[in-house]
Design a protein that fits this description.
The structure holds 2 protein chains of 2 kinds. By secondary structure, chain A is mainly α. Chain A has 1 helix and no strands. The longest helix of chain A is centred in the middle third of the chain and has 33 residues. Chain A is rod-shaped. Chain A starts with a helix and ends in a 13-residue tail after the last helix. By secondary structure, chain B is an alpha/beta fold. Chain B is built from 15 helices and 15 strands. Chain B folds into 3 domains: about 170 residues; about 180 residues, Rossmann fold (3-Layer(aba) Sandwich), CATH 3.40.50.2300; about 120 residues, Response regulator (Rossmann fold), CATH 3.40.50. Classes of the chains: A mainly alpha, B alpha/beta.
């Protein structure tokens, strides 16, 4: 029983971390698509 | 042994639970793309596994077991692995993040909102459990049946075969979507991708019109040509989204683009799709001679022509004022090599950031070295800020490569000279200005944009494979004069011309006779 609980806790944490990471990637992607990302220098495609 | 201890029962429950979670997640996932039709999908993907497992539980019939295997296989492979794992999990984490530079090898579906992608990820995780438990259940049930003398032939193979065929069929369909030759008179779509916003919008707008003019000039072609335009955006994420849409959704059969940075992003997608990509860009490495070709003078060509003109003018020294930017760095690197060979001394060099606004110290430091000429290359707004500072300092002996043609205020550089595209067909500019009186003629890329579209069309009209045609086309005469390419190289090269700013406008100077651009493949940075 204890092993099952530990497995579920570890599994849930892993899933939450994966989803949080996915959320971060989606936010970065949305910012880049909207042109509001600050990860690129201004005038990136200027020439 | 109780029912709870029986492994077949245990695996059956676990398999059904995992399959139903996958079905539930995929139903919510598809709701974001299909709306209420998803209720039907949900009813089927949840109802069928329950119905078939109850059938097997009641009858122990092999057909019922195979039916459950097939239905589970459909949910696991179709929705868990293809939709969830491939089109959400791997697309998101690898295709758009960890391996974004290799995004062509992953699903091209756009990144959706968080609930959409999260349910896809959860479906992929649960489907992996479903796969394990379903296989364990089928093995255990098969063993039970053998023990009871109820064996049947080939059903495990059937489940695997159906799953494999569905997966294989999907992959073949996805890969083959963009293939096929249109019938004579059919429409061929050509993608034109350039910046339509930000500092590159001027070049982009001129580029699009030059291609439009080339299309309007077509007469009596075998096929009808349709231009599908796309905006590179201002960063690689936007460019990737645009090229995926052009190739994956609009199904263009060739791409004509401009600007080196997006060209580098587009290159692997054109290669993956097996379609030609003509890039009017100066980074020579974009041209691989297989699917990707550059069509504008390389930095070495500009450098050779610049040094030739500088020597003709008796220039012995110069100050280099250039922006930190890939295309410009390429020009400056090639120029330095050319200057060394031509015996021209660099008295001062400053590579400034595109965000620089204060140029007085740079100009003063350069002036202290007393150069014969000030070489200036930058993009807007830095270009005109530097130009204004030079003018204030009374400096008019200015030269450049290309940059002055894209200045928003060319009067700042009155009398300066620079190398840029050759307009061998002088009528091209006149026709353009008559056709698009409100559009500024950006000489830098337009002849090559026109010629690149023309080259692609000639490829389709030739009747042979368009890529093969372009690979074999090593020389042509276009609006930019004679252009050549060494067989196997990906760079169409031509000899630039010398321009000057006169009365606030770029003017093409007559060129002294000189050797043609060398037809060797060049490695621009």
């Amino acid at each position: 029983m204890k092993r099952v609980v530990v497995k579920w806790v570890i599994g849930s944490v892993v899933v939450v971390v994966i989803l949080a990471w996915a959320h971060h990637i989606i936010q970065v992607n949305e910012a880049a698509m909207a042109g509001t990302s600050n990860t690129q220098p201004s005038g990136f495609y200027s020439h | 042994m109780t029912t709870t201890d029986n492994p077949t029962h245990r695996y059956a429950r676990l398999s059904l639970a995992a399959v139903l979670i996958t079905s539930l997640m995929t139903t919510i996932h598809h709701y974001y793309r299909m709306g209420f039709f998803t209720l039907v999908l949900g009813a089927v993907t949840i109802g069928l596994p329950i119905a078939t497992i109850l059938w097997f539980r009641t009858t122990r019939n092999a057909v019922a077991l195979v039916a459950y295997g097939l239905v589970s296989g459909w949910v696991i492979v179709g929705f868990g692995l293809i939709d969830g794992l491939w089109k959400s999990t791997l697309k998101l984490f690898l295709g758009n993040f960890l391996l974004a530079d290799y995004g062509q090898y992953f699903s091209w579906d756009p990144v959706g909102n968080f609930p959409f992608e999260a349910t896809g990820i959860l479906a992929s995780i649960s489907s992996l459990y479903a796969l394990g438990y379903t296989l364990a259940f089928i093995r255990s049930a098969h063993a039970d049946r053998r023990a009871a003398g109820m064996t049947s032939l080939g059903w495990v193979a059937a489940v695997i075969a159906v799953a494999a065929v569905s997966t294989g069929g999907y992959v073949v369909y996805a890969k083959g979507r963009n293939r096929g030759i249109p019938p004579e008179g059919g429409v061929i779509k050509i993608g034109v991708i350039v910046p339509q916003q930000g500092p590159g919008a001027l070049l982009g707008s001129s580029f699009l019109k030059a291609v439009q003019m080339a299309k309007d000039d077509l007469k009596g072609t075998k096929y009808r040509y349709e231009l599908v335009t796309a905006d590179t955006g201002t960063n690689p994420v936007q460019t990737r989204a645009a090229i995926k849409r052009l190739i994956g959704v609009d199904e263009v059969r060739a791409i004509v683009g401009g600007i080196s940075l997006p060209g580098q992003v587009i290159k692997p997608y054109a290669t993956y799709a097996g379609i030609p990509h003509l890039c009017v860009c100066s980074v020579g490495s974009i041209g691989d001679g297989i699917f990707n070709f550059t069509n504008i003078p390389l930095p070495e060509d500009e450098s050779t022509r610049w040094v030739e003109e500088a020597r003709r003018r008796g220039i012995k020294s110069l100050a280099l004022l250039s922006q930190d930017y890939p295309s410009i760095d390429g020009h400056v690197k090639a120029l330095k090599e050319g200057l060394a060979a031509g015996g021209i001394r660099v008295t001062y060099a400053n590579r400034f950031a595109g965000t620089t606004t204060e140029f007085a110290p740079i100009v003063e430091a350069a002036r202290a070295t007393r150069p014969d000429v000030y070489f200036v290359e930058a993009t807007e707004p830095a270009l005109d800020l530097l130009g204004a500072r030079l003018k204030e300092a009374g400096i008019h002996n200015i030269a450049s490569i290309v940059a002055l043609s894209v200045s928003d205020n060319p009067t700042l550089f009155e009398g300066a000279w620079y190398t840029d595209s050759n307009l061998a067909d002088r009528g091209f500019m006149t026709r353009f200005e008559a056709k698009y009186p409100d559009t500024r003629f950006a000489a830098h890329m337009m002849p090559y944009a026109y010629d690149s579209f023309d080259l692609v069309v000639r490829g389709f009209e030739s009747g042979q494979d368009v890529v093969e045609y372009i690979r074999g086309e090593t020389a042509y005469d276009g609006t930019a004069g004679h252009v050549n390419r060494e067989p196997g190289s990906g760079n169409y090269r031509s000899r630039p011309a010398v321009w000057t700013i006169q009365d606030g406008r770029p003017r093409l100077l007559d060129q002294p006779a000189g050797p043609a651009a060398p037809a060797t493949s060049g490695g621009a940075p």
